[in-house]
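Take a specimen:
=====
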Amino acid sequence: MFNRKKFIIIVRILLSIMIIANMAVIFAFSAENGEESGKRSDGVIESLAGLIIKNYDNLTADEKENITGILATPVRKAAHMIEYAALSFLCSALVYTFTEKVVLNISIPIIFSFLYAMTDELIHQRMTAGRAGQFTDVCIDTVGAAMGTMFFLFIASLIKKE
């Protein structure tokens, strides 16, 4: 026989573990010094450029460097948004196991993500060599969190209709 209460408890535990793991990943990326972080970003940019730019491998080093310079900021900011969209999505799922009130399902995950972004950007990154935590990144993180929350609520509404 299916025990709904036990199932919900297991789901809450799993979501909590996933939230902590997501926060640990964000913390680990933020702990990279400026050079390490730049190398990681450049690797991602080169992979993306290889996929979207025809004959990327045949370009000169200067042309590749120019492309990397153009894509660096958008790729780094998109990474911020994705990290926090995932965090907020998971937080939304956890909150949803307690209540289906839309106001709480929107506000709690976004506020939680915003506060974590504040500690990450304005405290943790400022103590990391070659990094400069910026409030603009907190805003970008929060936009990502809002997107993650809205995506969760969209998925939840589709599932609920069935």
Observations:
- The chain has a mean pLDDT of 92.
- The chain has one domain: 4-32+73-161.
